[in-house]
Amino acid sequence: MSIRKMIALHPKDQNNQTLADAVHHLMYCSKMCLSCADACMVEAMDMSQCIRLCLDCSDICEATSRLALRRTGDDQPMLRELLEVCARMCEQCAAECERHDHEHCKLCAQICRECAEDCRNAAASIA
């Protein structure tokens, strides 16, 4: 099952594949950041900043995906702004994760960079 297909089936907004791609990445990024934060908690070194940014990024991605799924009604300016904020948060999280040589941080940074790009594209696609 695909969230992209679910969004495409919505009677109001069936043609925004760019937004559907962003929602897909937002959902995964939220969970990957949460998992990375958990793994960072047991690392031998102080990972407090990485944990903080991963948790913040997870929360912002989750909130953004939830708002992006709501296609009924109209709050496009707020959604566009939230997508832009989320892209910035993902970039910050990725930069922090890239400072560490842990595989979980590398994966987290990768999904954050992909998510940031999709969020920017989706924000640009909203009229």
TrEMBL record:
<dbReference type="InterPro" id="IPR044543">
    <property type="entry name" value="YHJQ-like"/>
</dbReference>
<protein>
    <submittedName>
        <fullName>Four-helix bundle copper-binding protein</fullName>
    </submittedName>
</protein>
<dbReference type="Pfam" id="PF03860">
    <property type="entry name" value="Csp"/>
</dbReference>
<dbReference type="InterPro" id="IPR005560">
    <property type="entry name" value="Csp_YhjQ"/>
</dbReference>
